[in-house]
């Protein structure tokens, strides 16, 4: 199956930002969506918006750090549509801080959301893709994995792990599966600065408002990787604002 039309696509972190924009982009092109996130009200708003425009979407309350939640997300795709073509692992948290602030809960959240969360998605979707003899993982990394900037070391380390896990998975995927890393730069979302200390948050939000690209830019990159013909695996896309160093 080529293109986006008719594909069954699950997206984590679909209640706002890049995930929400990706859901809208793919729905407009005829994908059938299963959308996961924790905030029920925000998720419902995204699902309702898509269905009001004639698209197909279902919401599932998912915390990616819980293995059984990812299982529920992929099971919903199978129950509702009989298959799963793509899992977009996008859920993330950017609660960055200097080490001296010792915000260890935030460090743990970044590790569990980006690393355990990604692994939980692989654990849930890989057996489905193997059975179908087709499927695509799209993992959302970050340009922070390429250029480490203070005070983003923990965030950058977890996104480096996303990059490494994606490459390892690609090597083991074999001829039937596709594995894609999409690494956004500064993107205008509510997640920038969220959970960070007031000083760091203010600096990030100011920079976001000066240079960030819209989340639709990342959604287009994800759509591009998905719409390629079956035998074409877009391994990696970095997409950043021109103004980003
Ligand atoms: N914005 C940027 O500049 C930028 C740059 C590079 C990479 N990224 C990456 O892009 C991804 C999306 O971020 P964004 O910028 O769009 O920020 P965002 O608007 O805050 O979106 C983050 C999404 O992840 C979800 N999420 C967080 N923790 C979760 C968990 N444990 N389980 C399930 N869902 C969870 C949030 O939903 P709930 O709170 O409802 O669960 C939300 O839908 C992240 O992986 C981020 O690291 C962003």
TrEMBL record:
Keywords: Oxidoreductase
Coiled-coil features, chain-numbered ranges: none
GO MF annotations in UniProt: oxidoreductase activity
Superkingdom in the source lineage: Bacteria
EC number: 1.-.-.-
InterPro entries in the record: NAD(P)-bd_dom_sf, Sc_DH/Rdtase_CS, SDR_fam
Annotated Pfam families: adh_short
Family named by the database record: Belongs to the short-chain dehydrogenases/reductases (SDR) family.
PANTHER family linked to this entry: RETINOL DEHYDROGENASE-RELATED (PTHR43391), SHORT-CHAIN DEHYDROGENASE_REDUCTASE FAMILY PROTEIN (PTHR43391:SF86)
Protein name (database record): Oxidoreductase
Protein source organism: Streptomyces rimosus subsp. rimosus
């Amino acid at each position: 199956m080529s293109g986006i039309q008719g594909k069954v696509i699950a997206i984590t972190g679909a209640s706002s930002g890049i995930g929400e924009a990706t859901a809208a982009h793919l729905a407009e092109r005829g994908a059938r969506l299963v959308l996961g996130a924790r905030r029920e009200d925000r998720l419902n708003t995204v699902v309702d918006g898509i269905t009001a425009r004639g698209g197909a979407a279902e919401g599932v309350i998912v915390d990616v750090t819980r293995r059984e939640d990812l299982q529920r997300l992929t099971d919903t795709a199978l129950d509702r549509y009989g298959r799963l073509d793509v899992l977009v692992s996008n859920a993330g948290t950017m609660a960055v801080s200097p080490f001296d602030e010792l915000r260890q809960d935030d460090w743990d959240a970044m590790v569990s959301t980006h690393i355990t969360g990604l692994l939980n998605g692989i654990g849930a979707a890989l057996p489905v893709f193997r059975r179908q003899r087709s499927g695509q993982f799209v993992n959302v990394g970050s340009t922070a994995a390429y250029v480490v900037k203070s005070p983003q070391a923990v965030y950058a380390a977890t996104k480096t792990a996303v990059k490494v896990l994606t490459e390892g998975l690609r090597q083991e995927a074999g001829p039937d599966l596709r594995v894609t890393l999409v690494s956004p730069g500064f993107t205008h979302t509510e997640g920038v600065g969220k959970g960070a200390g007031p000083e760091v948050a203010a600096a990030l939000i100011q920079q976001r408002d000066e240079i960030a690209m819209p989340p639709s830019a990342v959604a287009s990159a994800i759509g591009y990787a998905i719409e390629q013909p079956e035998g074409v695996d877009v391994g990696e896309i970095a997409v950043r604002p021109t103004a980003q160093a």
